[in-house]
Design a protein that fits this description.
alpha+beta, 21 strands, about 25% helix, disordered N terminus, globular, about 425 residues, DUF1214 domain-containing protein, six-stranded antiparallel sheet, Jelly Rolls, 2 domains
Amino acid sequence: MTSEDAQPTRPRPVLATASQILAEETLLEILRDAELKRLQAELRDQLAATPRGQSPAGAATLDEAVSQWSNSLIMAEIGNFLPLPSQLWVTDDTPREWLGHTLPGVGTSGDNPDAIYRIASVDGDRRFEVLGRFDPAHRPAQLNIELHRGTKVTPPNMVNNTDLTPLASITDRDLQIAPDGSFRITIGPKEESPVHLLSAPGLLSLGSRDMLADWDQRPTWMELRPLDDTEPTPLDVAQIRQAVYRDLPNYLLFWANFPNVWFGGLQGNRVSPGHTRTGSMAGFTVALSWDLRPGQAIVVTTDPVGAAYTGFQLMDPWMLGPNAKEHQVSLNLAQTMPNPDGTFTFVLAHEDPGVANWLDTTGLGEGLGLIRWQAAPPGASIDPAVLVRDFRVVSLADVDGLDLPRVTAEQRTAQLTARAAGYHSRTL
């Protein structure tokens, strides 16, 4: 035995499945294609001529938006062609360095830095199981799992503008969890276990989200397994390339237009009423837009209403998030300092105002924001009108006079250092 053989085997990160590694390596290979780059440039020129593409903030972020949507589509196409159905970590606007490579941002729209998004394409006529296990000491605030018609490439709402109501949905509250944190779910056209997702004919999407109310929480280990005899098929990269070239225009243009209809197409300095969500993500959302001049800020006060998860994120005008590891562009429960009455007050500003709950616009004059509340106390009756207590545009001088939790320059540096470490922990 060599000294190398004697070294203990280091556990693989929960999210670094064999299918994930194959998918990311395939994505990086396809990104080198000249035909893809030609198609991206053509689509970028189309978007540059739109009102959003001609705005200063839209123009500044357009190249990154085209890149993220392209990466999102490629990952979705790969998921449709895997040798066996498998859950892939498909969405994360923040680039990550792991597995010996750097993966660029893979974004779609309104992607939450506190969520681990996984998806698999499954045949609705076949039977599957999901075996899972929580880290008991670092369990996410919520795990939700949904089964939808269609795939991430062509979901029904993209094809015919229908409501994307799930076929079936559950959260961790519906699971039968063993003392060691393990659980089992079955999927198929006939119910066959206490926790079952009833499928329907056709190609379906099995999606899940680990909601991290603290970046020390860990994503759930999960493995999708066929229960019917299934022969693996080789991954055909040429076939994936052709699917990408075929589907990229519709995919990219759909998501580029999505901010025009999202919550009625918010513009200026506005906040929406509270919106109740259904399915496994039952809870609430509030959307907002900002259009701030230098020296201005927006003050937002929210009520956490006892939810196990709340998060506030900022996005560019295309609804994609800046690098959440490097910038304080999102805040969750663990990252936010409360007011004495338990509410939270956030300040959106171009410059750091020295308040603890500062959300950094990263220099963009305009953009969008989304606040989420999930896993509220069971049986709680919550009026969406109480979610946002205050929304107002003020000057930075006015912020100086507010009685808010504050941080020193050294504490801000520590905050940002903790963000980078906390984000990196999801790949460990």
